[in-house]
Amino acid sequence: MPELPEVEALAAYLRERAVGRTADRLEVVAISALKTYDPPPSAVAGLEITAAGRHGKFLDVTFGAADTGPVHLVVHLARAGWLHYRESFPAATPLKPGKGPIAVRVRLDDGSGFDLTEAGTKKSLAAYLVRDPAEVPGVSRLGPDALAVDLETFTARITSRRGQVKGVLTDQEILAGIGNAYSDEILHVAKLSPFALTNKLSAEQIARLFEAMRSVETDAVTRSVGQRAAELKSEKRSGFRVHARTGLPCPVCGDTVREVSFADTSLQYCPTCQTGGKPLADRRLSRIVR
Q1: DSSP secondary structure string for all residues of 23-38
Q2: Which residues 6+ apart lie within 8 Å of 151 measured at CB?
Q3: In sequence order, which residues have a C-beta less than 8 Å from that of residue 200 and are 6 or more positions away?
Q4: Fold of 4-140
Q5: Residue 286 predicted with pLDDT over 50
Q6: Helix or strand or coil: residue 288?
Q7: For residue 35, which of 156, 189, 262, 274 sits 20 to 30 Å off, Cα-Cα?
Q8: Helix, strand, coil shares of the chain as percentages rounded to 5?
Q9: What CATH class has 151-289?
Q10: For residue 290, what pLDDT is reported?
Q11: 25 has which bridge partners?
Q12: Confidence class for position 47, pLDDT limits 50, 70, 90
């Protein structure tokens, strides 16, 4: 799933390539992807792309200027969504709705544009055309951006909900932008168990967690921004210490990276660095054994 660094990089890529160009048309190929009906997709035709940014893990492309009433294409890429920029499209004829990966296509006046795609059969990519990003339910509920908070605010947010630290870190209403992958990395750098309870963290542990969050996310943004959209996924994977590295040696201590599996996701951690050498119970395997 694209997280804060990748969405920031996609926004930067659009600022470089698409801002200043005029939209020819917006085509909704997967009808279920568009969650709004007013303004209609035709509203962006003839409007200049004036900005590209993000709200947490939501990508925001702005059409039109403030004095004419901008229209925002706000997109949550979900688990398998992505943005593909095209220098040109093979044909000007509109795409037909079907079972392909393309959910939304934006054609620009110079023949270029971008596709919002989603792999797999489970379709969760969500696109919204709105006058104000706050009209998007997921955006209106976001907590402060993970890279915009200071230690005092971070401490207040993290301790505002009692729970396992990984779940609190990835709660978008607590902090916006952190997902499954980077939370694994943050906890590894902070030397904390993903199951540590937030109400039992010491001030020193919270400060360590804050510094780890800042360093991991900032480093990932630095590595990602400037990359072509097609290269971002491999760039993301290349920087991981524990996430998606089950069975491989920890780059810090050499212990074997372990995994805990859940119904539709998993987490990775290093026992030596994070849990005092004690492996965490894999809930899925425990159920099978019983």
Answers
A1: EEEEEESSGGGB---S
A2: 206, 207, 210
A3: none
A4: N-terminal domain of MutM-like DNA repair proteins (3.20.190)
A5: no
A6: helix
A7: 262
A8: 35, 25, 40
A9: mainly alpha
A10: 29
A11: 107
A12: very high
